[in-house]
Specification:
By secondary structure, the protein is an alpha+beta fold. It is about 25% helix and about 35% strand. The protein has one domain (about 20-160): Thiol Ester Dehydrase, Chain A (Roll), CATH 3.10.129. The strands form two sheets. Strands 1-2-6-7-8-5 form a six-stranded antiparallel β-sheet. Strands 3-4 form a two-stranded antiparallel sheet.
């Protein structure tokens, strides 16, 4: 690896790369946009994970209605689905959102907490397929649905290309 470019590894990231739900509970939201948005771990299983974020004025799209910005909800779903993939793989491996379709069904109202539940339903050697739903506490009354795929990447290969 070139000494000029060093990968940014979050402080919560495990040295052995093994997935551990306690790491998510304690640290995934300690830096970056997950910290700014205030994402919190809610629950998880072998192939799914649920996060939440509280309504805040900084996240409002329309001051008059107080509706939460769709970008915050999309980020919540992107993170929930990505973490669900790690949960299914039982490992933290570099990945990138390759394809994500969002069906935004309704606005999240002023003051309402938003939950984002992600599920990894299929893994191949390089691609993980996911789906998810955002809601305000009733999964049967969704804000948005998401489907898509993440691609496993090689951080060392990426850095090698950047340095050329």
């Amino acid at each position: 690896m070139n000494d000029k470019i060093k990968p940014l590894t979050p402080s919560w990231f495990p040295k052995d790369g093994q997935f551990n739900i306690d790491i998510i509970r304690k640290g995934f939201n300690q830096s970056g946009h997950t910290k700014f948005l205030g994402m919190e771990y809610v629950d998880g299983g072998d192939d799914w994970l649920e996060l939440s974020l509280d309504w805040r004025e900084e996240l409002v799209a329309d001051e008059q209605s107080g509706v939460l910005a769709s970008a915050a909800i999309i980020s919540l779903l992107d993170n929930a689905t990505s973490l669900a993939i790690f949960s299914k793989m039982k490992a933290f491996k570099p990945q990138a959102t390759m394809d994500m379709r969002v069906d935004y069904l309704r606005a999240s109202p002023k003051g309402a907490r938003v939950y984002g539940r992600g599920e990894c339903y299929k893994l191949t050697s390089k691609i993980a397929f996911m789906r998810g739903v955002a809601h305000n506490g009733d999964i049967d009354d969704p804000i948005a649905h998401v489907t898509g795929a993440f691609i496993q990447t090689s951080l060392s290969a990426f850095i090698g290309k950047v340095n050329k």
